[in-house]
Amino acid sequence: QAPLVESGGGLVQTGGSLRLSCAASGRIFRSYAMGWFRQAPGKDREFVAVISWRGDRVFYADSVKGRFAISRDNAKNTVNLQMNSLKPEDTAVYHCAVDREPNRLGVEAMSRLDFGSWGQGTQVTVSS
């Protein structure tokens, strides 16, 4: 699996926006679904969003639906997470991850166990 590097995190006020990026190396990137997860202190890592390998199917956690948007650019080997209307409860370390299985057709039922490679994460802090 290709190594992943996240960027774009930072400190923002409630209602603000951030755009996270995840850069993947290797030509295999474009054949795999990509996901974003987050982990707040003292909590389990939770699913945020996923995008299919073609970019034609996306799925979001209920907590971010309507506020976050995931996208990918296979030519640049990047996946992005646009986060708007941020809330203090969005504060966490955000990780991108690569699907274990290439060319997966459906992404709606994917779980954390379906992802086999993870980035180190980028911190997002939303102040109230």
Structure characterization notes:
The chain has 128 residues and is mainly β. Helix content is 0%, strand content 51%. It has strands at residues 4-7, 10-13, 18-24, 32-39, 46-51, 58-60, 68-73, 78-83, 92-102, 115-118, 122-127. The strands form two sheets. Strands 2, 4, 5, 6, 9, 10 and 11 form a seven-stranded mixed beta sheet that branches. Strands 1-3-8-7 form a four-stranded antiparallel beta sheet, with no helix packed on it.
Number of helices: 0
Give the SSE string.
EEEEEEEEEEE
N-to-C CA distance: 38 Å
Largest sheet: 7 strands, mixed
Low-confidence stretches: none
Provide the gyration radius in Å. Answer: 14 Å
* Structural class designation: mainly beta
Give average pLDDT, whole number. 94
**Helix content bin:** under 10%
Counting DSSP E segments of at least 2 residues, the number of strands comes to 11
Percent strand: over 45%
Question: Outline, from the CA principal axes?
Answer: globular
What order do the helices and strands come in, and which of them pair?
Layout: E1 4-7, E2 10-13, E3 18-24, E4 32-39, E5 46-51, E6 58-60, E7 68-73, E8 78-83, E9 92-102, E10 115-118, E11 122-127
Parallel strand pairs: 2-11
Antiparallel strand pairs: 1-3, 3-8, 4-5, 4-9, 5-6, 7-8, 9-10, 9-11
